[in-house]
Amino acid sequence: xxxxxxxxxxxxxxxxxxxxxxxxxxxxxxxxxxxxxxxxxxxxxxxxxxxxxxxxxxxxxxxxxxxxxxxxxxxxxxxxxxxxxxxxxxxxxxxxxxxxxxxxxxxxxxxxxxxxxxxx
Length: 120
Prior knowledge:
With 120 residues, this protein is mostly helical. The chain contains 4 helices and 2 strands.
C-alpha cells in the first residue's frame, strides 16, 4: 500500500500508529457499523469468500501453496470493474486472466516445491 493511501479499519490495537503514513480512519463497530465511506465490510467480504473457498472448494490446502490461493482469491475479487468503474462480465474477466498467464510456465517441480532437487 502506498504512503498516503486511504486505510479504513476497526479499532484493533494493531492498527495504531498508521495515521502518520496513511490516511487512516477508524470505525467503531459498537456505535455505527458504517460512517460514510469508512467501513470494513469489503475486507470482511474478501476473507469470508477466501475461508469458504479454502474449506469448501479446495479442502486440502498445503501451507506451502497458501500464497497461491490468496493470489487467486485476490484476482477473483479485485478486477470486478474496469478503470472507468464499469462492471466486467465473465468473458472480459477471463480475457484478463489469459492476458496475465500468456508466456508463463509453472512446472511440476515448482508446484511441488521440489525445484532444484535431483532425481535419485
